[in-house]
Amino acid sequence: MGIKVENRLRELRKKKGSTQEQLATELGVTRQTVISIERGEYIPTTGLSLRIAKYFNTQVEKIFWLAGN
Fold first, then answer.
1. Count helices and strands in the chain by DSSP H and E runs
2. Which of 13, 44, 61, 62 is deepest in the core (most CB within 10 A)?
């Protein structure tokens, strides 16, 4: 059984007024990576998770959490 991580990335991105392309550029990843994270298809690395949290000026735990918790 794999780990399922849920996230608020799409919600936070839209609230900030950023497009997937803008966020991807800021994070140094592709737009497809942002899409995959938003859909829950890809769990970002610790480093990428920390960059995302910094971009939104919040804690990683406020963006990502284990499903069912």
1. 4, 2
2. 44
Q: Classify residue 33: in a domain, yes or no.
A: yes
Q: What is the CA radius of gyration of the chain?
A: 11
Check residue 3 and give its pLDDT: 81
Provide the percentage of residues in the chain whose pLDDT is more than 70: 97
Residue 22 forms part of a structural domain: yes
pTM: 0.91
Domain at 23, CATH number:
1.10.260.40
The rounded distance, in Å, linking the Cα atoms of 66 and 28 is: 25
Which residue carries 């803008």 as its tokens? 22
Q: Which token pair is 55?
A: 């971009």
Task: Work out how many domains the chain is built from and give that number.
Answer: 1
